[in-house]
Design goal:
By secondary structure, the chain is of the alpha+beta class. The chain contains nine helices and 19 strands. It has helices at 68-76, 81-91, 116-121, 158-161, 228-231, 236-239, 254-259, 288-292, 394-406, and strands spanning 4-6, 9-10, 152-153, 165-172, 175-184, 195-198, 213-219, 245-252, 260-261, 264-265, 273-279, 311-315, 328-332, 335-337, 346-351, 361-365, 371-376, 379-381, 385-389. The strands form five sheets. A six-stranded antiparallel beta barrel has the order 4-5-6-11-8-7. A hairpin with a 5-residue loop joins β16 and β17.
């Protein structure tokens, strides 16, 4: 059985003009495809845990202003506050000092940190009548491995095809990293959403780490689909035509935070996250949804697998043979992948997209007949051939609702 892993892509720390891709660790998946043990769901009061995210401002002296509520936690971790405000959050990845708890997320805006070069190089009641959408028959079921579906290049300009899609950039211990993400609707702000959907492992390292840093979303990255060579001297307006949006709040599942791992681990069926964003340079007062002109609804009650004709996954695959600069898609009828019978069964499709495609949205026809986000890329074999994504149920809905509610008054 091929090794599997979450499909984000990482680059080593930045050198003067070049970066190299580290070899990702992978653990073999057993013949029974059992990676996980039972994961307890979050409580209704704290679905996914609050990932408190301030948007620290620059106090005029070049220092980041740390929210009072976070200062004591930093001190508890043995972090020098003065060092932190001078950029310590960018380089200190000591496990004991890596902020990992739900309430410790912080992502200060560093203007122009993500310039075109850095972006280019950044490489989950018995009497009740059965609901038509009931998936109890899916639980614990694994269908045959799907045949690979060759990823197709998205037609340019990307904005005309998948205006909601984009690329996520962030920093981790291995250097700059990339995922994919999707603009989704915000119930509290109809038509004016600043919410982005991605994978949990694209915002938090799981059981062995904490929150990633310097997290930004770039909708319609490289909109005209230029090659690496053509991007060498491309201005930021061309690479990021709809701006750079910094995460000022992030939330993922408790299961991912406590049990996620390098190959998905026990948190894989709960590998999803929601990020709230704000424009890097203040913007023009328009929301992300208004800026890109679209946002997808999220369907938390998608039909059982046999009733879904097709799902389309979109992403920016960065591991060979791809280079991370262009958007691709795979469309396939989904099958089922069970990692552990007590946990939700994941969707699985044939697809040759590689690392970097993680977090990208999976779209299917919703109950109203219109496109809706129903999953996101989570795990796949190291040698590409298929992708798996979590089914979005009550835990995902709780996270989505919590992020929306948090910003309802703004």
């Amino acid at each position: 059985m091929r090794p599997i892993r979450p499909l984000f892509a990482a680059r080593s720390g930045r050198s003067t003009r070049s970066r190299t891709s580290p070899v990702a660790a992978a653990v073999a998946l057993g013949a029974a495809l059992v990676l996980t043990a039972t994961a307890c769901g979050p409580s209704d009061d704290n679905a996914g845990g609050d990932a408190s995210a301030s948007q620290p401002s620059d106090g005029g002296d070049g220092k980041v202003q740390i929210p009072d509520g976070l200062k004591d936690k930093l001190k508890d971790h043995g972090i020098d506050l003065d060092e932190w405000t001078h950029g310590g959050w960018k380089k200190n990845w000591d496990k004991d000092k890596w902020l990992r708890e739900a309430g410790e997320f912080i992502n200060p805006i560093i203007k122009d940190l993500w310039d075109p070069e850095r972006m280019r190089d950044a490489d989950k009641n018995p009497d009740r009548k059965v609901d038509d959408n009931d998936i109890s028959g899916d639980q614990g079921v694994t269908d045959p491995t799907p045949k690979p579906v060759n990823a197709a290049a998205v037609k340019t300009p990307y904005h005309d095809q998948v205006a909601e899609s984009g690329k996520l950039f962030f920093d981790g211990p291995e250097g700059s990293m990339v995922c994919s993400a999707t603009v989704v609707k915000d119930p509290a702000h109809p038509g004016k959403s600043n919410m982005v959907w991605t994978a949990g492992h694209c915002v938090h390292a799981g059981a062995e780490g904490g929150w990633y840093r310097n997290m930004v979303f770039v909708p319609s990255y490289n909109n005209s689909g230029k090659s690496v060579d053509e991007l060498q001297n491309a201005p930021k307006e061309e690479v990021a035509p709809y701006g750079v949006w910094w995460g000022d709040w992030a939330q993922t599942s408790d299961q991912w935070i406590e049990q996620g791992g390098p190959t998905g681990g026990k948190g894989a069926p709960y590998d999803f996250a929601v990020i709230h964003v704000t424009p890097e340079k203040g913007g023009d007062g328009k929301s992300l949804e208004e800026t890109v002109g679209s946002a997808l609804p999220v369907d938390f009650n998608a039909p059982a697998v046999p009733k879904i004709d097709a799902m389309t996954a979109t992403g920016y695959p960065a591991a060979p043979p791809f280079d991370g600069q262009k958007a691709f898609q795979c469309a396939d009828k989904p099958g089922r992948l069970s990692l552990s019978k007590p946990d939700p069964t994941m969707y699985r499709i044939g697809c040759t997209m590689t690392g970097g495609s993680s977090g990208g949205g999976w779209v299917a026809q919703g109950q109203d007949g219109k496109p809706a986000l129903v999953s996101n890329t989570s795990i796949g074999p190291v040698t590409a051939g298929w992708l798996a994504g979590p089914r979005l149920g009550k835990e995902a809905k709780g996270i989505y609702g919590a992020v929306s509610k948090k910003f309802a008054g703004q």
